[in-house]
Amino acid sequence: MRELLFITLIAFAFIYFVYEGILAPSLRAKLRLDLFALRDELRDLKIEHRAELSDEVFRELQTAINGAVTRLNQIDLRLLRNTRLAFQNDEKLRKRVARRIAILEACSVEEVRVIRDKYSDLLDNALIINTAGCIPYLVPVFFGFLFAESAKTLIQKAFSLSENDLNRIAPPPAFA
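Now predict its structure.
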């Protein structure tokens, strides 16, 4: 049993190494390029719709995209937790973010909404890429929670057996 556990942990470590060392950086590089392309699309849009696309909307969206490019590898579960805590504890932060969102939503240029949707999808992909390395470690925990109730029931049944029945199912250790 120990050997199987050891081999499983070695396999998980190898999978993690391959994913975090090879796959994830490549996927992040593609996301970064997609974000650059999105920023270029926004800049082209500003040139085409100079009058309709306000400087404020342009700056807010470009700043958001640049922030994602800079912090692409930090978009993970820890960031979500820290953001949730910050929003719970800081009324001014909630108001600033609500104001920024309202500015972007009030923009009449439909392409801005399309860029925001693409941006949101790219951030979702970044979250998946940055947390996928943990999946091999979370699978056993998931199955543990999934089967915990049935395991609890079986253990209760096993120790509700008579001594003879329990010895037949699980013989006592020889040294006892």
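The mean pLDDT is 88.
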